[in-house]
Structures are given as structure tokens and as C-alpha cells.
Specification:
heterodimer, A: mainly beta, four-stranded antiparallel sheet, 11 strands, about 50% strand, globular, B: mainly beta
Chain lengths: ~110, ~110
């Protein structure tokens, strides 16, 4: 069990640029989640995959956000035309069946 | 999922037991109590969960009142490394594929 891995750990970009984050779940975990966390708040759900199918999206996931999980393994989260309000920690979690979700250490995004 | 209420912050002396309370007065019969913690700059870490019986693992103990309207997470011998935000979450066990709903949690400071 190598844990959930996220890359990069930190990303600084200028407003208007596109960014992409990657999440590698624990092997054999068929469920993968993306959350966003702003300063002083708990994580908020963005979207969820079961294998390669994206089954649920939060209203927080605007049309500038897109997530994929090709082949049901790693996942990517892309933000297009970044805005100041996108500055946050983006967390990925994985699980299987009814086991607790295991989180990665997140990607911290800063928009200049 | 039922709503939870936690104190915003608590202090605990190193080596003493840390008792973190959580109120969940609207919990329903099929809902479990989950605890996660988040150490600074890391993702949330699963600690323990329970339905109605007290539970203990290598990290902590969970005490749930008989009416299930409140619970207490106990760290028996707190260390400086236990300084973190602790989240109490109530959710139905069968909803293992649904996202976690985090509140603001309790910020525990362990003091030397």
C-alpha cells in the first residue's frame, strides 16, 4: 500500500492559464474522488469516479473544470482559464467497496 | 447525512488524554460516526468509525452514547504529532460510494 499520490504538490500560475493535476489512487481502489479545500474550511466534494465512469459532479464543478479517469486507474483534474477564486488545495481520495476513503496530500494551487 | 457539531478548538497537554466531543442529535439508525484528522499541509487521515458500540484501534477510541446523539474521540496519550484538525462525520454505511461531507472540525493543539 503506497498510498494515494498527487502531483504536483504545489502549482503557481497566472490568472487565465490552464492547469492539470494528477492523482494516482491506491491500487485496486475502484472509486476515486476529488475534493477542494480553501483556507479554514473542511474539504468540499467536486466529483467522483467508479472505475472509469464519472458518476457524480458537485455544483462547485463549473464548466471550466474537467476530470477524467481513463482505464479506471489514475485521474486528472484540469482547470481552464484559472481565476483567483480557484486558489485552493485540491485533494484526491480513493476507496473500494465500503472501506474508508484514503486521501492524498493534495495539490496546492496559487493563482497570481 | 446527519449534521454534526464540534467545538472549534481545544488544547491538550502532551501525554494526557485528548477527548474530542461531537454532537449528532439527528443521527438515524443506519448512520455511522466517522472520524478523520488533518495535520497541517497533509490530506485527511481516517482514524476510526463506529455504529453504536465503543470502538478502539491503534490510533484512538470512539465512545458513542447510548442514545447515539453524541460521541467522543479519545486519544489516550496525546503527542505533539497529534496536533491537527479533527473532523466528525456521520454517514450511512451503505453509502460507501458517496462523498464525505466535512464541517470545520475541531483544531486540537497539543502543548508541551
Amino acid at each position: 500500500d503506497t498510498g494515494v499520490s498527487q502531483d504536483p504538490r504545489h502549482k503557481i500560475t497566472k490568472r487565465g492559464q490552464n492547469v492539470t493535476f494528477r492523482c494516482d489512487p491506491i491500487s485496486e481502489h475502484n472509486r476515486l474522488y476529488w475534493y477542494r479545500q480553501t483556507l479554514g474550511q473542511g474539504p468540499e466534494f467536486l466529483t467522483y469516479f467508479q472505475n472509469e465512469a464519472q458518476l457524480e459532479k458537485s455544483r462547485l464543478l463549473s464548466d471550466r473544470f474537467s476530470a477524467e479517469r481513463p482505464k479506471g486507474s489514475f485521474s486528472t483534474l484540469e482547470i481552464q482559464r484559472t481565476e483567483q477564486g480557484d486558489s485552493a488545495m485540491y485533494l484526491c481520495a480513493s476507496t473500494r467497496e465500503d472501506q474508508p476513503q484514503h486521501f492524498g496530500d493534495g495539490t496546492r494551487l496559487s493563482i497570481l | 447525512d446527519a449534521k454534526t457539531t464540534q467545538p472549534p478548538s481545544m488544547d491538550c497537554a502532551e501525554g494526557r488524554a485528548a477527548n474530542l466531543p461531537c454532537n449528532h442529535s439527528t443521527i438515524s439508525g443506519n448512520e455511522y460516526v466517522y472520524w478523520y484528522r488533518q495535520i497541517h499541509s497533509q490530506g485527511p487521515q481516517y482514524i476510526i468509525h463506529g455504529l453504536k458500540n465503543n470502538e478502539t484501534n491503534e490510533m484512538a477510541s470512539l465512545i458513542i452514547t447510548e442514545d447515539r446523539k453524541s460521541s467522543t474521540l479519545i486519544l489516550p496519550h496525546a503527542t505533539l504529532r497529534d496536533t491537527a484538525v479533527y473532523y466528525c462525520i456521520v454517514r450511512a454505511y451503505y453509502s460507501g460510494n458517496t462523498p464525505l461531507v466535512f464541517g470545520k472540525g475541531t483544531r486540537l493543539s497539543v502543548i508541551a
